[in-house]
């Protein structure tokens, strides 16, 4: 299936509200039946770690639990950059979410499938 919107999160969930904004955005799209997919790369893969706790100094809420709503909203599992996962989360068995791993080349190929790409 071709998804019309790709939400590409590249920001850490620990130092900004971008992760929460990305998850809110994709859930809002799903709520109105707009096809969407989430891609995590760079420090954004930390969102997949169990007990991902955000910085109290920034007063950010832990938004990783929103990933659990993907199934409820019939969203596909997040796409994740393999290189980023290796850098930030070396043990895939400890992830708190089902994912689809992609190489950088596969990510480039997949970008052509989307009508809109939103990067955060």
TrEMBL record:
Gene3D superfamilies assigned: DsrEFH-like
Family statement drawn from the similarity comment of this UniProt entry: Belongs to the DsrF/TusC family.
The protein's name: DsrE/DsrF-like family protein
Organism: Alkalimonas amylolytica
Phylogenetic classification of the source organism: Bacteria, Pseudomonadati, Pseudomonadota, Gammaproteobacteria, Alkalimonas
């Amino acid at each position: 299936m071709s998804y019309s919107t790709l939400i590409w999160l590249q920001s850490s969930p620990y130092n900004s509200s971008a992760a929460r904004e990305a998850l809110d955005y994709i859930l809002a799209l799903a709520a109105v039946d707009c096809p969407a997919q989430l891609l995590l790369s760079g420090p954004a893969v930390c969102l997949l770690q169990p007990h991902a706790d955000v910085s109290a100094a920034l007063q950010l809420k832990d938004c990783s639990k929103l990933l659990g709503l993907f199934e409820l909203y019939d969203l596909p599992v997040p796409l994740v950059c393999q290189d980023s996962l290796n850098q930030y989360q070396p043990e895939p068995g400890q992830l708190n979410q089902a994912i689809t791993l992609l190489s950088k080349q596969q990510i480039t190929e997949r970008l052509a499938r989307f009508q809109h790409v939103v990067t955060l």
